[in-house]
Amino acid sequence: MSIDGLQQHERHESWFIRGATLPNGTRTDIRLADGRIAELGIGLSASGARVLDADGLIALPGLVDLHAHLREPGYEHSETVLSGSRAAARGGFTSVFAMANTLPAQDTAGVVEQVLALGESAGYVDVQPIGAVTVGLAGNQLAELGAMASSRARVRVFSDDGFCVSDPLLMRRALEYVKAFDGVIAQHSQEPRLTEKAQMNEGALSGELGLIGWPAVAEESIIARDVLLAEHVASRLHVCHVSTAGSVDVIRWAKARGINVTAEVTPHHLLLTEDLVRGYDARFKVNPPLRAREDVEALRAGLADGTIDIVATDHAPHPVESKDCEWDAAANGMVGLESALSVVHAAVVATGLLDWADIERVLSRTPARIGRLAGQGNPIAVGSPAELALYDPAATRVFGRADLAGTSSNSPYLSMTLPGDVRATFHRGYATMLDGAVRSSLEIAGHASGVVTHG
Ligand SMILES: [Zn+2]
């Protein structure tokens, strides 16, 4: 999805954003024209452009989510590429990596190209398909990694997420294979035998509630194995949704040793704890599970000191019937695209651990780099692609259904008070969301119809 994809026949809007604050604290006007940032500075001329008053708003490069489930093909009653793209635009995202656990799975060039095309016709964000590591995510046989890498979808991130690549020989082969095209294996670290029938974090509370526990060691042992495998074959590993204090320690050790590993944490693991399970509200059921307060503190510290590289949402939409049932029967997962920036704000900015320049790094620049995605994650500078989110840090809102823009509403934050709100999102110079309202699909599709080249 290089910027070369911007063709001359694509329509653009001209925008004059007045008085925004950059992540480094500098105040500036921003002029968008021809899909790029055309001018920066104070007292620029609006000269015919649409004007947006950004007084008090922070301008961030468009957010990049390395881990989202868009559910299409196969589970369109939960989400589609179009509805998930709208949720992304609502949350300030301009790019989303779509996980491979669709039906059929994204394990061939044909399926990843189909998802890419669905993203292009939706037009709200760059949808970058992730490829499955194994055929059908079944963990038996490597998928056609090379064919997906050389397809029009240019896949660089491979994951069986939802499942762990638990066979060490397959994991080794996958890590070796992706070196040829600078790919990365994104592992869902969960030792299956240690987590059979698990329902929540293993600890005193799981004992008290009588629910089968998901022990921290099931995550930590896989991460320890995988960083050693990555070192052994000199390849690149990415650890999905790190959730325990011990995992942060293992990754810190691996990085100090020079192992090529990156890691992500979700907004919900930075804010919520296992205590929420007490109410048996299945909106709080997620995999890996919500952990203890000490884990949350360690994840925040790990993000602050760079052990954890990025925040990724693990946006996981489910229909009402999969959540409105007994805890044991409910599906794992939470929607997260629309709330991500506010939740990260609450967890690590309001607590003084990260500043807005750090947020630019962990939610835009570094995820784009890990995923080798051109045209995203660039600094706000003249000539950069016009990918922007405008965020109001002073706002406070009771998060509600009206704040959700996707198909499903399984958000853990409904009726919680969250800080901040995204006021506008710009993708390829076009406003995909303004004042909380996602632009109509018709307008966006018309805008995107000329985009046929994929670099
Ligand atoms: Zn996962």
Quick structural summary:
With 455 residues, the chain is α/β, with parallel strands linked by helices.
Describe this structure in words.
With 455 residues, the protein is α/β, with parallel strands linked by helices. The chain folds into two domains: 12-58 and 383-448, Roll (Urease, subunit C, domain 1); 62-370, Metal-dependent hydrolases (TIM Barrel, Alpha-Beta Barrel), CATH 3.20.20.140. The protein contains 13 helices and 19 strands. Strands 5-16-17-18-19 form a five-stranded antiparallel beta sheet, covered by helices on one side. A five-stranded parallel beta sheet has the order 9-10-13-14-15. It has a four-stranded mixed beta sheet with strand order 3-2-1-4, with no helix packed on it. A hairpin with a 2-residue loop joins strand 2 and strand 3. Helix 6 (216-232) runs parallel beside helix 7 (245-256) and helix 7 (245-256) packs parallel to helix 9 (293-304). The chain starts with 14 loop residues before the first strand and ends in a 7-residue tail after the last helix. The model is unreliable at 1-9 and 449-455 (pLDDT under 50). Bound molecules: zinc ion. Zinc ion is lined by residues 161-162, 188, 240-241. Zinc ion binds next to loops.
